């Protein structure tokens, strides 16, 4: 259906209900001459006269009566459909797809989703767990959660965690067999566990900094993995040292199962961010999650 036809249809219905071109124009927010032109164009397209006009009154012809009876229910259906979209826009409800890495899920979502569900029972969550840096638009996701330093500049990013630290650590059993490293250079004498980025395939170099001195240690590792939870399991088993995010090992450090080293070489950095495209309207369901997680 062409736009001109819809314009004429809307004008015709307004005139038919108001019995006045002037009143219809006021309702539609356009001039009376524009309303008259739209109705004449519609009549020309249909090949019938819909309205009888005089200087004092406007009345429906027989064809106009029949036509109004057919189109009015359809226009009401369209209005109801628009009202339904308003409900989706203003009420947090519907499917919300979030792309999240495994560590980000553990740090930001794992212990809070039950509370979110109690607050917003009409929102259905789908968590796409992917340690690669995904294109949320291409994958059909509403938003993603990643470390801030990995995000593209055209994304809207909202902080959803406290600052993090890198933690170099090993098990108590491991340090019964190896001395504690005191400087970054001491790491060369240790068995290390390396992480390979799933997206780029590169080995992560441990980024260390102390009193303005920056060091990137490239671990000569006997085992490499692209999964942070596997790294943590290897460290717990005494397989070697690893560089992990602070939230992943907090409980192990608290219990004394893991021992942290070179803490003064690992300053805090910005943590996790929820990000979404800057070129889209933010629906109520996503606004609800943003407000719930924002720190």
Q: What is the radius of gyration computed over CA atoms, rounded to a whole number of angstroms?
A: 32 Å
Structural class: alpha/beta
Q: What share of residues is helical?
A: 40-55%
| Main sheet properties | 5 strands, mixed
The fold-level CATH name of the largest domain is D-Maltodextrin-Binding Protein, domain 2
* Beta-strand percent range: 15-25%
Which CATH class of the largest domain is shown?
A: Alpha Beta
> What is the 3D shape?
rod-shaped
Number of strands: 14
Say which CATH homologous superfamily of the largest domain is assigned. Periplasmic binding protein-like II
- Give the helices and strands as they follow along the chain: HHHEEHEHHEEEEHEEEEHEHEEH
Strand order of the largest sheet: 4-3-5-14-6
Unreliable spans: none
Oligomer: single chain
The N- to C-terminal Cα distance equals: 48 Å
Overall average pLDDT: 88
CATH architecture of the largest domain: 3-Layer(aba) Sandwich
